[in-house]
Amino acid sequence: MKLHLPTAALALLIATPITQAADIEAGQSKAATCSGCHGNEGISPNPLWPNLAGQKEQYLKNQIIAFRDGARKNAMMTPMVANLTDEDAANIAAYYASLGQ
Fold this sequence. Notes:
The chain has helices spanning 5-15, 24-30, 35-38, 57-69, 77-81, 86-98. By secondary structure, it is mainly alpha-helical.
């Protein structure tokens, strides 16, 4: 079966998820509670807690969501991210990722 170009293009568009760019400013605002442990600029003052500045955006988003959803367990992180939406996670991740640029 041969697909016509317009049909194939339409199928590709339907199958491709539409992603929205994260809002770095919104992420900075939401990250205010993170700064107590991870530092104002994403550099942790405590060697037990990771630096977030410059981490890869998708990695950070995935970790926030994993803590929130219980796939990753940590007594300190779980309550901090419990009320974050996927959009919040994306925005926070974009903010911290932008600090390494």
